[in-house]
């Protein structure tokens, strides 16, 4: 049994807290959140206690800390949890600054604790099956990957202003998936972005529609596109072309119902909300973290995965701003 | 909060017990099962107590009884629970004898308690959405329905001998779905059956592959086919043709992964196990039962739905055995 | 080069005439049609001459006759063409009377000429591929087949009155496909029919919606359903279940375009017209007939295939009218 | 009736020649080809005569010339045909040099003859329907387009050496489709390419796997990817995202047959050959050219479309070679 403390009881903290409580191999011991009421309601639903952050980090009855607080606190809390000898599962991103992430990774390494970063999509049953088959050689040698992510609607501009921009806030998931599937590091990043969905996003200095091209040292190519808008649901797809074939993972529809009439044959919309689409992924992520702890090894995606994804996001941001490709490594 | 007692802690009782325990509007108070250990392990997982059947029926802290015991006990336990004033959710079938079901329905009517029969497929999100749209007129007036159910593999012959035969044991679900979708009663039943999957099933006097034709008074037609074998997963599909179009609900695939290679484009197999395919249906069934209790009305599918499905199963059995169609109503 | 005479230059005669003219192994020598102008326009388009029926049957420069005249002339023209030593490709059905068909088959046998019946669906690339794979054992031993045919809209009631009824006019194609796929003869026929699309069809003594159940001596089952209405296009599907899997052939959509929006993901309608859907089938049918002539063997589907399909149509008609199943063979 | 002369009776000339001969509004008068026998066999099949190039250009009985000769002759033959007052349909590309294309366009403009460039994909029924619906606003304002083209196998290296490279030889079709769908000109081109399929292609100075990013002045984005390899057939897909939805056009499968077994549900491979996939497109292209002549207007895609696609191919080649994005316009 892994005994968890949860830092942050907001939307994503609620998901993690309930998944920990439902796991047969974990127990949710305590929850901390500065917002009055947030920790309490989750504690009531799960049987956990409410404590302060300091109490959780100092607790002898807690083995692992799940960090689901605002981004700008992640690195600091990882440092403190690592110093306290806790295993850490931290929501992405580690930090908006790659330099700050590197500091944290050193602290974690020194402490010798497991650190996992919450790139939940690696645990989506569809994407996980895709990656497993690619790794088994189902399509031969990987040559070209296309990743697409589109949110149903943009977040508030107030959020966007502090998000680090689309490449760091949204496309970072796709950068992690690209690395997960390419099996080697990217050496070249090209990027274009536009504000087409909401002019206020452009005025805030960000883009809402973007595409990048990545290339690895051996010549593998990856295309990624993102948009803050999709009228037909939460669009999340990956396609991998290799020397011996192609494999793809697609969207999940709300039902299998199809209606045929004068205008054609209509399938139900795809699931519209990331918490619905990735419900299984979040639960499996907790189990993978527990597996690593149980087996005494570093989990994946680890801190270095967090750092490399952030470097790609930085490079894409620069490439977009300068109009020039960025070389890495 | 509806307070449940669970009778029977076998495979299906375990599912129901956990769904009751997970419901925000229900509490699993007690479990009874004559097999040593069965009730205990479920009680431990859910926080319920272990009691005898008599204790549950006599309990003042229990509002509703879920019956998941062997078929030949259903009618008797419904009678007793009704007499004790409990709301009842009973697994299908009520009984293999229609006459016995009628007696039980009278007892339930006299007691004035809610009785729901566990035709879980009505609550499958795909089939429920299909029926809702048909009822809304999405395809106009219903004209012809095709229902297909195929199990991955046959049950043991020892089970089949006491099952009442394929039409009563397996196709009864499809008869209920037919009535659910046709919106009127069947007046004519044609039936053919064969033993193609396992000769031992034929030797036991049953069939493993069968098809029926149903017709209603207004001329609507329904085709049903069943097989105890499907190499590609648990096959469960419905197609409804109406005056203005066609609507269908199909199988659920294990993932959305597709692999394209020299032999074509292969989608992952469909889910292979009824508990996986109908996991959501079982949970929604409990909620629908609670809804009816909360609103003080009879739930659906009710006892009469159980009786009518049984009559269709009887008619199909007779039609198959005599080679002649059977008229009803 | 096979030299053809064409009897009948109506809608279906036009199709056959153009396909013969386009074949690299055939030449369309002459066309006969009692309607002024019909033969002439086709002759102009194809370079054929216009002759009378008698001239075509007596011609020394014609090897084969394609009969595309009204149904009630088929048997007589087959007799005469056979006597004249011509190979014959006759549109289905041979005749509405099975007794009359038997007479004709004797005459053909005596003459020793090739006779092919125009069950064009055997040559549809989709259905032909399906049958070839079933014959190769792709699904093991066949157990249960489902065939569905729905026309976009009913023909005029005036046509229906002389058509022999839905089972002989429309479902006869499906009976032929059933025999093509089952690989053995049917011994039992169950049938239901209704008039749901157009009351005038019912008043004319026919049905517009129907379903049959067929069973073979070894226990294989086939379901067929027909309707004179399909708002979403010309619906033509087959599904074959066997001991080792399932194989199906579906509809052909007008394009591969799909539109995703608030209401879901809509595929273009299926092709709406049988001449569009079966364009390739008609062309391939001519080539198969030429193959048989070139190889000096009887073509398939042959006269006996025409007779057996007619017997099934007769049986289904009787079963529907009496409400009782019909035994064959 | 438009009277055609055909220059070039190679693989693509054969296709065009037969389509002209089959058109009800065109006649194939004469064919010229320096290879002995090529023009003769096509002439025999179509009823055309064999003439020299000079005879065709000077002929009084020829209205239009279709140029299907090697690329390096296109511009010269367009010049000469235009001077002779013939309408011209020329295979893509006009020339590998944009400067040379501009000269030719001036000559055509001076002559005042219609000039159409053979970007056949605009006439594919799937892509044409896609574009028509995009133009009607089916997805609102276009925001992001993804175009994918993959050939089953690379051409011989000897061909590649004189092809102008992948961007000019293969991706030029996709550049034309991008312009067709974007509805505005591209101002920025990013490009990456690799030799992953065949090292000999890399040694010849070309790439066999490539991806580009295009951006228009208003910020619309287009992704294109190409590969000289696809084990699963000829892969040709387009996806258009707009403010109100998404529309796509996909591959054409060989049949609608699907086989379900232990490994999943397998659809037949996609069509493997461009002449099969684009058979309808080539026929419709001829009709569109005839339409323009009949209506006395310039056809589309016209010479300027040929020039702009070539400029994009040049820019992508430069961007790939320099590693830097290229600005246009």
UniProtKB/TrEMBL annotation, chains A, B, C, D:
The keyword Oxidoreductase applies. Keywords: Oxidoreductase. InterPro entries: Gfo/Idh/MocA-like_OxRdtase_C, Gfo/Idh/MocA-like_OxRdtase_N, Myo_inos_IolG, NAD(P)-bd_dom_sf. Gene3D superfamilies: Dihydrodipicolinate Reductase, domain 2, NAD(P)-binding Rossmann-like Domain. The keyword Oxidoreductase applies. Residues 2-119 form the Gfo/Idh/MocA-like oxidoreductase N-terminal domain. Belongs to the Gfo/Idh/MocA family. This is Inositol 2-dehydrogenase. It comes from Phyllobacterium salinisoli.
């Amino acid at each position: 049994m892994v005994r968890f403390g949860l830092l942050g009881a907001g939307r994503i903290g609620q998901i993690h807290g309930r998944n920990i409580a439902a796991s047969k191999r974990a127990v949710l011991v305590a929850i901390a959140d500065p917002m009055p009421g947030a920790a309490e309601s989750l504690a009531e639903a799960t049987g956990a206690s409410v404590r302060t952050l300091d109490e959780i980090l100092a607790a002898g009855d807690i083995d692992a800390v799940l960090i689901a607080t605002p981004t700008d606190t992640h690195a600091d809390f990882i440092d403190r949890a690592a110093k306290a000898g806790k295993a850490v599962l931290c929501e992405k991103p580690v930090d908006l600054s790659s330099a700050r992430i590197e500091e944290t990774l050193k602290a974690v390494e020194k402490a010798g604790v497991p650190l996992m970063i919450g790139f939940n999509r690696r645990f989506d049953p569809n994407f996980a099956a895709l990656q497993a088959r690619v790794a088994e050689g189902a399509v031969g040698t990987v040559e070209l990957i296309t990743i697409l992510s589109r949110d149903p609607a943009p977040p508030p501009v107030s959020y966007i202003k502090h998000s680090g921009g689309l490449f760091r806030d949204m496309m970072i998931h796709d950068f992690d998936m690209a690395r997960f599937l390419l099996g080697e590091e990217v050496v070249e990043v090209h990027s274009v972005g536009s504000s087409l969905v909401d002019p206020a996003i452009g005025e805030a200095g960000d883009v809402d529609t973007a595409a990048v091209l990545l290339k690895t040292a051996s010549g593998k190519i990856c295309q990624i596109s993102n948009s803050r808008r999709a009228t037909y649901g939460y669009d999340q797809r990956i396609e991998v072309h290799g020397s011996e074939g192609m494999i793809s993972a697609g969207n999940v529809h709300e039902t299998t119902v199809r209606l045929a009439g004068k205008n054609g044959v209509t399938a139900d919309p795809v699931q519209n909300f990331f918490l619905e689409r990735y419900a299984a992924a979040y639960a499996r992520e907790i189990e993978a973290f527990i597996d690593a702890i149980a087996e005494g090894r570093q989990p994946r995606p680890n801190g270095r995965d967090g750092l490399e994804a952030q470097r790609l996001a930085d490079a894409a941001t620069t490439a977009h701003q300068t109009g020039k490709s960025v070389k890495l490594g």
